[in-house]
């Protein structure tokens, strides 16, 4: 083996002044876009920490002179949503009770669908996948009437289980697409070897595929969580004004109330509270979302 000499080691040379300037220009442009993107959030946060008198008399961009958390407390526990004045806390819980099961069920069913469509092929599996894929392009508005009829027949209208059912059905097309594309590149020989060893359908799925599906599981969970939590149309259509109303519908009722004083600081605090779970999910797991998409793209 030839000895490695110092001369054979490639040492990067100094950057040219032009490349340094271009790099700083790029950073400057990205910084400007970041400030523009974060500007609405800044306005919401500073407004939510001001008193109502300060909001009316002060500058939109000015920092609060006497910061207070009273708007946050009011938004959470005392502000009026329709005829009740108990804040967002009950509706926030409704969204959790709706989102968590819907995400879990749709992810599991999507994984099973992707597993069947790639590793347990059957006659007409391509047609079945095409029909499932077609569901990804159906607008929300088209399914409102048939879904309302279905919920009525099942006795799930204006209930949290009804909303879970709606989001599972609508999201199943996307979760199936994610897992199907991911499993399409999974080695078939590994599955066949497990079959020869006597492993059955669910054992192969549980012991072989799922442990290797973490990237696409993260993608699916983030996608479904943000879509379901932020949904307004299904919530206002199928929850009505009942006890199953999600937080997005309650927020709309607070902001668009035509009675009483417009408490803009409370409205901003309520909007941040409603958006906080998706913001936390993206901050903590956003990089894994991109990695999962890229892993599926490379393998597929």
Detail the topology: elements first, then pairings.
Layout: H1 17-48, H2 52-57, H3 70-77, H4 89-119, H5 125-134, H6 144-154, H7 160-183, H8 188-196, H9 201-209, H10 214-230, H11 233-238, H12 247-255, H13 264-299
Explain this structure.
The protein is mainly alpha-helical. The protein has helices at residues 17-48, 52-57, 70-77, 89-119, 125-134, 144-154, 160-183, 188-196, 201-209, 214-230, 233-238, 247-255, 264-299. Helices cover 69% and strands 0% of the residues. The mean pLDDT is 85.
Outline:
By secondary structure, this protein is an all-alpha fold. Helices cover 69% and strands 0% of the residues.
Keywords:
300 residues, 0% strand, flat
Distance between the termini: 39 Å
Class computed from helices, strands and strand pairing: mainly alpha
Number of strands: 0
Main beta sheet, described? none
Radius of gyration over alpha carbons? 26 Å
What is the helix/strand order? HHHHHHHHHHHHH
Low-pLDDT stretches are none
How does the overall form come out from the CA principal axes?
flat
Whole-number mean pLDDT: 85
Strand content: under 5%
Please count the helical segments.
Answer: 13
Q: What share of the residues lie within helices?
A: 55-70%
């Amino acid at each position: 083996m030839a000895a490695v000499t110092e001369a054979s080691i490639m040492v990067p040379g100094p950057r040219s002044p032009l490349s340094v300037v271009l790099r700083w220009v790029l950073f400057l442009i990205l910084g400007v876009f970041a400030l523009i993107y974060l500007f609405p959030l800044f306005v919401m946060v500073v407004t939510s920490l001001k008193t109502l008198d300060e909001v009316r008399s002060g500058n939109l961009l000015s920092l609060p002179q006497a910061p207070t958390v009273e708007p946050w407390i009011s938004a959470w526990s005392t502000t009026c949503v329709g005829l009740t004045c108990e804040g967002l806390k009950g509706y926030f819980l409704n969204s959790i009770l709706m989102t968590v099961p819907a995400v879990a069920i749709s992810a599991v069913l999507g994984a099973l669908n992707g597993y069947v469509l790639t590793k347990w092929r059957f006659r007409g599996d391509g047609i079945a996948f095409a029909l499932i894929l077609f569901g990804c392009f159906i607008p929300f508005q088209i399914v409102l009437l048939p879904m309302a009829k279905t919920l009525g027949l099942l006795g799930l209208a204006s209930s949290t289980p009804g909303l879970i059912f709606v989001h599972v059905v609508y999201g199943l097309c996307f979760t199936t697409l994610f897992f199907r594309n991911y499993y399409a590149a999974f080695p078939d020989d590994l599955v066949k070897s497990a079959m020869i060893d006597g492993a059955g359908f669910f054992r192969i799925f549980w012991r072989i595929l799922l442990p290797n599906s973490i990237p696409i599981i993260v993608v699916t969970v983030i996608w479904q969580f943000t879509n379901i939590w932020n949904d307004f149309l299904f919530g206002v259509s199928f929850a009505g004004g009942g006890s199953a109303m999600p937080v997005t519908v309650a927020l709309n009722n607070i902001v668009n109330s035509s009675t009483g004083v417009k408490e803009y600081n409370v409205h901003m605090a309520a909007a941040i509270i409603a958006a906080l779970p998706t913001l936390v999910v993206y901050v903590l797991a956003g990089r894994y979302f991109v990695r999962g998409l890229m892993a599926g793209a490379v393998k597929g």
